[in-house]
Design a protein that fits this description.
extended; Pep_chain_release_fac_I_sf; Mito_Transl_Release_Factor; Peptide chain release factor 1
């Protein structure tokens, strides 16, 4: 069992979410590669980026969000759950719900701005 450098509550929530998605640690192939971005010599020496592959589905996730390898392992699994949920649930997934919500907000703002310009004329 892998321990993550997060609170026990977050780790348990991730494990239950993985179980709900049908993901198991044995199904993952995990590689550690060097991260990109600022950091100078430090990024050239440490392999903190996590490359996670789910063997049954072929889904791949690359995470170099944090400087810590442990946190990146946690986030990679979290992103993997999101990927699997979006494939299985489709429109009902949280990620797509947020995207749709933002799309509606932008459309509404655009319409209001156009109405505002019409009133000035």
């Amino acid at each position: 069992m892998i321990t993550f450098p997060v609170t026990q509550k977050k780790a348990d929530a991730l494990r239950s979410r993985m179980k709900q998605c049908g993901l198991q640690e044995a199904d993952f192939e995990e590689k550690f590669i060097r991260s990109s971005g600022p950091g100078g010599q430090k990024t050239n020496k440490t392999a903190s980026c996590v490359y996670l592959i789910h063997k049954p589905t072929g889904t791949e996730v690359k995470c170099d969000k944090e400087r810590s390898q442990g946190l990146n392992r946690y986030y990679a699994r979290k992103f993997m759950c999101e990927q699997i949920e979006s494939k299985t649930e489709g429109v009902k997934s949280k990620q797509q719900f947020k995207a749709e919500k933002i799309r509606k907000q932008k459309k509404r703002r655009k319409r209001r701005a156009a109405d505002k310009l019409k009133r000035k004329d």
